[in-house]
Amino acid sequence: MCVESDGCEIEGCSSSDEVRTLSGSMSPGLKSNPDLHPCKPGHKFRAALLRCRSPTAAAVILSFGNILNYLDRYTVVGVLLDIQRHYEVSDSGMGLLQTVFICSFMVAAPIFGYLGDRFNRKVILSCGIFFWSIVTLLSSFISKEYYWLFVISRGLVGIGESSYSSISPTIIGDLFTNNSRTMMLSVFYLAIPLGSGLGYILGSSAKVAAGDWHWSLRVSPLLGIMAGTLILLFVPEPKRGSADQMGRIKHRTSWLCDMKALAKNRSYVFSSLASSAVSFATGAFGMWIPVYLARAQVVQKTAEPCTKEICSSTDSLIFGAITCVTGLLGVVIGAATTRLCRQKTERADPLVCAVSMLGSAIFICLIFVVAKKSIVGAYVCIFIGETLLFLNWAITADILMFVVIPTRRATAVAFQSFTSHLLGDAGSPYLIGLISDGLQQSYATSALWQFLSLGYALMLCPFIIVLGGMFFLATALFFLDDREKAEKQLSQLTRPPSSVKVTAT
What we know:
- The structure is a single chain.
- By secondary structure, the protein is an all-alpha fold.
- It has 18 helices and five strands.
- It has helices at residues 41-51, 55-78, 80-87, 91-116, 121-139, 147-175, 178-210, 220-234, 255-264, 266-299, 314-341, 348-370, 375-390, 392-403, 409-423, 428-442, 447-458, 460-493; strands at residues 2-3, 8-10, 18-20, 26-28, 37-38.
- The strands form two sheets. A three-stranded mixed beta sheet has the order 1-2-5, covered by helices on one side. A two-stranded antiparallel ribbon has the order 3-4.
- The longest helix is centred in the middle third of the chain and has 34 residues, at 266-299.
- It is globular and about 70 Å long.
């Protein structure tokens, strides 16, 4: 027999069992007590829910929610040509869609990071999912005269999705540790390329099936509402730092102290700058590569320019499928390579990231060399380049977990997200579109020059990726020192308050 947190008996438990409370903590099994009363039907249902709240189930649900986060983000990109024709806007106008989304996303991230370190995280996650799901659904009914309203709706969706990206990794960080945490974070961050690729596929497929691109924005909201409900029911709220140490944290640092510590954490700063380079490239590629390949086929005379109400979705479908596969390969190879390299060097995490990014830059450069002659060759370069680029997503999150103490991880994730978006994909889609428009205006407009101008603009990405690889090498220099500092400060925080002297280190 076990006792729930309100003092009633739960049937079917032995005296040695433990029951997970609603807060996610574990209460030891207790012997029968005459003061206890039988559980009411509602209590039995609640107890059944609590038994389903395993860490693995929570990680799977959170990963599913992350898939939907990115699926919704790239559904719009999957029907970009249709949106451009419907609202009659230029390349830079289309780039503005993603830029507004990312700007609102990154501005909201620090706010949610502060809330995530101090309040119930799963409630914040669920509210964020419900919010962006409703806004996405409503945006599908905006008429062509109100493009500005469609742009604003993408900004609101960014706010909702920001809550999820800032907080959900910290829950996984508090449920697992060491190699188990690396594996679960790998699964979680696999959702980024998988969700992105599925966004292209869903957007294109829904458009073709319904004969109207607006329907591509009406599927993900239903899935989002389901994910938010699952999080409320089955994801626990673990104690912060519960997976990192045996004692409970006795002292909490202030927000100002947290920010000072993060600013002095060199591994955190350099890995955040490296993440910015990744975000710059993935944001620009995700927005423009399908359009670039479509223009390449027009130049090769294997396709006609889009003059119909519904444009061809072949390139979006293929690019989406490649993104799904390369995301899976990248995250799995990254996790396996890091685990193997940790046996050789304790600096394995940042070194694997650095090597993969430098290798990725080579193949991404080759995309623009071969695309004019061979679409198949371009797809091969995209496949290899994306696989290498996606290696570092989960590893970067694991670096943060090593060098940042549990009580400030949500803040750290949020500000890393803010920095990577501010310096990365907040501006890269619009910047690439602006450069492309500028080049087209400088010369006579033709199908060939539309293709070349976009390619020249995208050539900025490999140079940014190389810069990101340099930042990961810098991270490797300071990684061991910063990890040791985090371990020492965590041991200080678990002592009684009278014996703690916390400094922003």
